[in-house]
């Protein structure tokens, strides 16, 4: 069981499955949504229980994806591809150890110019 929350605690969640190795997304939308790049893992919707859903605001960043954040403290929490049976959870929102390691970087062609990626992991331009 993995547990997580937003900064103020109004939104809490549990994940009742193992976590896949997270990816780091450097696309412009993820950078703007999180303030840096985003690291997240995908889990089956059926494995997630969210408490405080009334405090989540969903921003539809495209026709296919919405992004969830706490409407009280602003914490970025979820990446929700509407057409799939999974939801992305941002690694920084977990309160308990995840027992994972970053697997790869994606959309590195869009990364910010103020940092380098030097961890030796695979880097996909898109």
Automatic annotation (TrEMBL):
<keyword id="KW-0862">Zinc</keyword>
<comment type="similarity">
    <text>Belongs to the Gfa family.</text>
</comment>
<keyword id="KW-0456">Lyase</keyword>
<dbReference type="InterPro" id="IPR011057">
    <property type="entry name" value="Mss4-like_sf"/>
</dbReference>
<dbReference type="GO" id="GO:0016846">
    <property type="term" value="F:carbon-sulfur lyase activity"/>
</dbReference>
<dbReference type="GO" id="GO:0046872">
    <property type="term" value="F:metal ion binding"/>
</dbReference>
<protein>
    <submittedName>
        <fullName>Aldehyde-activating protein</fullName>
    </submittedName>
</protein>
<keyword id="KW-0479">Metal-binding</keyword>
<dbReference type="Pfam" id="PF04828">
    <property type="entry name" value="GFA"/>
</dbReference>
<dbReference type="InterPro" id="IPR006913">
    <property type="entry name" value="CENP-V/GFA"/>
</dbReference>
<feature type="domain" description="CENP-V/GFA">
    <location>
        <begin position="2"/>
        <end position="116"/>
    </location>
</feature>
């Amino acid at each position: 069981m993995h547990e997580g929350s937003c900064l103020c605690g109004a939104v809490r969640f549990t994940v009742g499955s193992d976590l896949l190795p997270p990816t780091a997304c450097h696309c412009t939308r993820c950078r703007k949504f999180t303030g840096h790049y985003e690291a997240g893992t995908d889990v089956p919707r059926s494995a997630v229980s969210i408490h405080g859903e009334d405090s989540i605001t969903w921003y539809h960043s495209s026709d296919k994806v919405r992004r969830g954040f706490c409407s009280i403290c602003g914490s970025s929490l979820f990446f929700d591809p509407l057409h799939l049976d999974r939801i992305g959870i941002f690694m920084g929102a977990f309160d308990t150890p995840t027992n994972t390691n970053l697997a790869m970087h994606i959309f590195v062609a869009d990364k910010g110019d103020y940092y380098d990626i030097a961890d030796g992991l695979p880097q996909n331009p898109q």
